[in-house]
Each structure stands twice: as structure tokens, then as C-alpha cells.
Fold:
Amino acid sequence: MINLLPPEAKQSIAYARQNTKLLKWCVAIVLVTAGTGLVVAFGMLYMNRSINSYSAQVQKTQDELKAQHLEQTQKQVDDITGSLKLVVQVLSREVLFSKLFQQIGTAIPAKASLTDLKIGKVEGGIDLTAIAADYDTATQVQINLQDPANKIFDKADIVSITCNTASTTDPRYPCTVNVRAQFAKNNPFLFINTSGAKQ
Structure:
């Protein structure tokens, strides 16, 4: 088949076909760009809403914690923890206090009286307070407690001795002596002594 169209017409038809292809490509690019823009815009909107939502949740949680007096609750927890630590400390030493009191009572001199006994902060130690008739009796308390024959303490040190008639509740015992002592290694007044043998 012979194409008898003039060259100008042929050229116009060729350009028309190319223009149609270019138009299709332009429409496709515009559609893809618009779609990408919509996706990005939707993503940004979703992210902003999520950020605002999480910020509101965080603020709400902080307000609830403040309303619940978190600091006061934490202080109470710390106090309870301290008390539990003291209980654990006493139980870990496993002292037979009933027998220990009797033995300490026999070690206290005649003109003195035990008034207080506390578990010391030093491992295996105990703080004792006694009242005495005079300074010599107060020092005798420390000597008797440290005596190996009593089998109570390896070491007993005087922390303080004060003698003041005006400040005492019992005028017969004007002196107060504070002693810090370490349990003997083979103390028979512990459930488990330091060598690990059960009493």
C-alpha cells in the first residue's frame, strides 16, 4: 500500500503520535506525584496524632503520680525497707536472747543494772547500757563482760561513762556506762556460731 500523503501531513501525524505518548507520560507522572504527596501527607498527619496522643498519656500519668503522692509513698517504702533490714540483720545473727540475757545478768556486778541492749551496726556486735553505783562499778561492767569465763564476748570496749546525780532517775545509780561488745566465736548463745555448728 502506497502512502500518498504529503510530507507535511506525515510529519504532523508523527508529531501528533509523539504528543499523545508524552501527554500520557505527563498524566502518569502527575498521578504518581499526587499519590506520593497524599501518602506523605497522611503519614505526617498520623505521626502528629500519635505524638500528641502519647504526650497526653505521659502528662496524664505524671499527673496521676503526683496525685498519688509518689514521694511520700517512696519514703514510707524506704522506712519499711529499713525496718525489714533490721529484722533480717537480727535473724541472720540468730541470737538466743532469753539465754543471752541470763548470762549477761550473771556477769553484771552487784552494784550495777543492765538498762538497754541494742544490735550494733558492726557485724556480730552489740551495744549495752548499764547504770552503776559508782565509777569503779561502771568500769567493772566492761571487765566482767569481756571475761572469757562468761563465754559471751571476745571483746568489750567502753564507749562512755557518765556520772551525774542530778540527771539520774534512781539516785542509787548515778553512773551510766555504754559498752560495745563483739560476740565470741564459739558463743553458746547463738543458734549458729561462727564455726557453723548448730547449738
Summary: Residues 191-199 have pLDDT under 50 and may be disordered. The domain at 96-183 is CATH 3.30.1360.100 (Gyrase A; domain 2).
